[in-house]
Write a structure and sequence with these properties.
The structure is a homodimer. Chain A is α+β, with helices and mostly antiparallel strands. Chain A is globular. The longest helix of chain A has 29 residues, at about 95-125. Chain A has ten helices and four strands, in the order βαβααββααααααα. The first copy, chain A, folds into two domains: about 10-90, Glutaredoxin, CATH 3.40.30; about 95-205, Glutathione S-transferase Yfyf (Class Pi), Chain A, domain 2 (Up-down Bundle). The first copy, chain A, has a four-stranded mixed beta sheet with strand order 2-1-3-4. The interface between A and B is large, with 43 and 44 residues.
């Protein structure tokens, strides 16, 4: 447990990715949720060619990982599947309507109100570092992201987690914070750095990360 | 109905926005969901100053609209509140676990796998049209968005909606499609244009749009 070849839950991942992506592929999120909840899952590893093929696109229309299935449902989108897994465990989401609504709200906020701004910066710093447009654009991207981080920092204050207890929302938000590619910007928000560390120090996160890292083969499969 | 001063549901909106934003503010989404479900809501209109203030940020940490409350829960994020409203009506989401998981999946996909790419283009075409970086960057943004639209178009095929019946997922995806600012790009995907029209032709959408448009005052409030 949690990786268990006979588990009800199946999560797809890649059999190989380049070094810079290792530990950041999004199957990390449902792996982490399963580790927190103590729920087993089996992994199904794909090469890129299979992921882009017509067959797999019935499971994941954008040709990405992860896709998810259990005995009841078939899904894609890491945020959605973390909410699905959270329905099985109070460790990830309260049972009452008010508490559930907060977790759904914060998962959505992480995915639509914060992560797109983080991606804008990743797109510059990781994929377009030397492009002329990126140099011209970067200051505005930093300012926009700063605004979002500032709002998040104000909300968090000295609370340990987004809501009362650690939840599915922190899995998504902490993985988003982990993608911020400018350390000086993050340093403006010490409580966000502490929050990120608090989440990533959890044994369940470390097990999920190790599970992803150890799933990669040394070399890509030959076509 | 659905705007009803005594309704259980409260949705916030802006009392005034510039012309280019009218009809596109995100309270449109929960308004539409309420109209489809025939569930009443009351609106609470804010000026920008109030929305950015500390008090409102307890409801909406990013200082935006909409925020939402009903007798049980308090939320923000339009995608999350549409899912909340959908729990009250089979017109927006099936009752079975398998069907619910599909709607959650597609709402998340629209918000995290499609809308960020649409925003990239809006950011160029609406807010930075004459900037040097925008001219250099635009072809790549078009290519990335084309990839997402192509995947979505392949999934949709000749289906009328993302899943069997119209649902909360189509509310989010159709409002995302409505934001695509390049008609020539959309024209590459006739089934997406037809899908968008099919959704936006619904009487409930038209009522929601009219409700938002008629909520704006002619002039911003004086500070």
């Amino acid at each position: 447990m949690p990786i268990d070849a006979n588990a009800d839950i199946e999560i797809t991942g890649f059999a190989w990715v380049p070094d810079f992506a290792r530990g950041y592929v999004r199957d990390l999120r449902p792996r982490w949720a399963c580790e927190e909840a103590g729920i087993g899952y089996r992994q199904r590893l794909l090469d890129f060619e299979t992921a882009k093929g017509e067959g797999y696109r019935q499971e994941q229309p954008f040709g990405q990982v992860p896709a998810y299935r259990d005995s009841e449902v078939q899904m894609f989108e890491s945020g959605a599947m973390v909410l699905r897994i959270a329905e099985r465990s109070e460790k990830l989401m309260p049972r009452d309507a008010a508490g559930r609504a907060r977790i759904l709200t914060w998962v959505t906020a992480a995915l639509n109100s914060v992560e797109p701004f983080v991606f804008d910066l990743v797109n510059i710093d990781t994929f377009n570092k030397d492009a002329e447009w990126a140099k011209l654009r970067r200051p505005q991207v930093i300012d926009s992201l700063r605004g979002r981080l500032s709002s998040l920092s104000n909300w968090l204050g000295d609370k340990p987690y987004l809501e009362d207890d650690f939840s599915a929302a922190d899995i998504i938000m902490a993985t988003v914070m982990r993608e911020v590619s400018d350390d000086a910007l993050m340093a403006e928000f010490p409580n966000l750095i502490a929050y990120r560390e608090r989440c990533l120090d959890r044994p369940a996160f470390k097990r999920a990360l190790e599970a992803q890292l150890s799933s990669f083969s040394a070399e890509p499969a030959m076509a």
